[in-house]
Amino acid sequence: MTQFPDLYQRDREWHPPAYAQNYKTSVTRSPRKALLSLETTPSEAAGPTFGHNDIDPLDKDLLRNYAKTGDPIGERIILHGRVLDENTRPVPNTLVEIWQANAGGRYRHKKDTYLAAIDPNFGGCGRTLTDENGCYSFRTVKPGAYPWRNWVNSWRPAHIHVSVFGTSFAQRLITQLYFEGDPLIAKCPIVNTIPDQRAINQLVAALDLNATVPLDSLAYKFDIVLRGYRSTYFENRPEGN
């Protein structure tokens, strides 16, 4: 039987500082006082799961789950991967949610005023449960890049936001993935707050030609590792779940 260590030491050089000079929004988001460590309450640790029993087969198909008059506009893709623990064991029955901009780089949100058009057939969000092998998959369109008010000419790379729920409501991890080959990744002020290139690389979904559907959709693979040396960088909890 394989023996795994009980504790993986957290690498504090892996994660970005709370304040980064070139990421203007971090000025208001960074703490000005010493951080407090709060113990998890029993209700938080043993509370109910969220949304696990409300999954519709169309929820993971963003090409169809909001369509009104036809397919969404844009490059059709399959996003797939596995949710794994620190020792590469699969994590089944995990709720994975995604949300994203459309192919023009605009979110379906009233506060998004980017001049790109709203796609009437694209809602931009989906969810699914991992299977017994920790696998998940979505059909969607590749999101577009969009400008944001950091500096005069700052653009976000194409990205998809990812949320993973554990066994209770308080166990939620959030991150965002990018796409292999995008030149904007290296120029993004948010990405560049991450000091370790290995961590950045683990946020990039790899082109997976083996999973493509010929004459239909390209595929990208993005594995989510919850803890350990190869853990995915999560925005809301740097040390992992």
Characterize this entry briefly.
This protein is mainly beta. The chain has helices at residues 26-29, 42-46, 197-201; strands at residues 76-84, 95-100, 125-129, 135-141, 146-148, 154-156, 160-165, 172-179, 204-207, 218-221, 224-225.
| Low confidence ranges | none
CATH superfamily grouping: Aromatic compound dioxygenase
Structural class: mainly beta
- Strand content is 15-25%
Radius of gyration from the alpha-carbon trace, in angstroms? 18 Å
Q: How many discrete domains?
A: 1
First-residue to last-residue Cα separation: 25 Å
Helical residue percent? Answer: under 10%
CATH fold category name: Protocatechuate 3,4-Dioxygenase, subunit A
Give the tally of β-strands. Answer: 11
**SSE pattern:** HHEEEEEEEEHEEE
Count up the helices.
Answer: 3
Shape designation = globular
CATH class (first level) name? Mainly Beta
Largest sheet: 9 strands, mixed
Instruction: Calculate the mean pLDDT score and round it.
Output: 89
- Which CATH architecture? Sandwich
Description:
Residues 47-228 form the Intradiol ring-cleavage dioxygenases domain. The protein has a single domain (24-29, 60-226), classed as Aromatic compound dioxygenase (Protocatechuate 3,4-Dioxygenase, subunit A). Helices cover 6% and strands 24% of the residues. It has helices at residues 26-29, 42-46, 197-201; strands at 76-84, 95-100, 125-129, 135-141, 146-148, 154-156, 160-165, 172-179, 204-207, 218-221, 224-225. Strands 1, 2, 3, 4, 7, 8, 9, 10 and 11 form a 9-stranded mixed beta sheet that branches. It has a two-stranded antiparallel sheet with strand order 5-6. α3 (197-201) links the parallel β8 (172-179) and β9.
